Amino acid sequence: MEALGDLLVKSAIILNYPARDAEDIVVTLGKRLFDAGYTKESFIQAALEREKTMPTGLPLSCGFNAAIPHTDVEHVFKPGVAFATLTNPVNFQNMVNPEDSVPVSLVFVLALDQPKAQIGMLQEIAGILQSPKVIEDLLIASECGDVIRIIKNKTS
Amino acid sequence: MVKRKTILVACGTAIATSTVVAKAIEEALEERDLYVNIRQCKASEVPSLVDNADLIVTTTPVSVDKDIPVIQTLAFLTGIGKEDVINQIVNYIKED
User: Fold this and answer.
1) In terms of Cα–Cα distance, which of A4, A1, A29 is closest to A149?
2) Binning pLDDT at 50, 70 and 90, where does residue A156 land?
3) Is B43 on the interface with A (CB under 8 A)?
4) Looking at B11, B55, B86, B89, which residue is catalytic?
5) What is the H or E stretch that residue A25 is in?
6) Domain that holds residue B89
7) In chain A, whose CA is at the least distance from the CA of B39?
8) Which phi and psi angles does B57 have, rounded to 5°?
9) d(CA B49, CA A153)
10) Calculated CA dihedral for residues B79, B84, B85, B86, nearest 10 degrees
11) Residue B1 resides in a domain
12) Residue A136 is part of a domain; what is its CATH number?
């Protein structure tokens, strides 16, 4: 069982990051996943390319929005999740409606190594996105340990 | 015996969002004693698979040149409007 709390890569959690734009945060988190041995270097470019044609911005009900950049399994060595909260929202394009921009404050970069394998973790992320309280807790978290605790408590 | 309908669930890569959507649809329909075939695919694969589908649910825009219902929604990821979308799907599944 691969829970989100176990798949989060500690060295790839960045809180209150002053991102310039969407590319900046995808590159920054992608680099952390690469440095930690989770992905090939090509993952970053592939995720950026995918974002251009099939974006991953998700407008949420709580007023803060999220993005879940990811790409094909061939760029991944082993499954892991990078996470960031942003000091100021940056625009991603809307997944369901790519011509619309979504100001995003939380970013989960997903390194997935096989279709359907990480269903539990993906459902957990969907659960988080649907919980205004968890989103709020994540946005005020100041340490990586807080993020992991919030996510583990939420999903236990 | 009524033939099971087939729902094509599409997203960009067929590994992340369509997995969540497929599972959520399956669970919602099973709760209502409705059983369907669910097939996951990339948005780019929709044109080649659409002939065997009765309904498409997708998180990303798809191009379809067949007369088939297409529900484009993030409801299973964000929760916004989820009940409405489930009701729409149920209605399509129950149609002859």
Assistant:
1) A4
2) very low
3) yes
4) B11
5) helix A22-35
6) 6-94
7) A116
8) -120, 125
9) 41
10) 100
11) no
12) 3.40.930.10
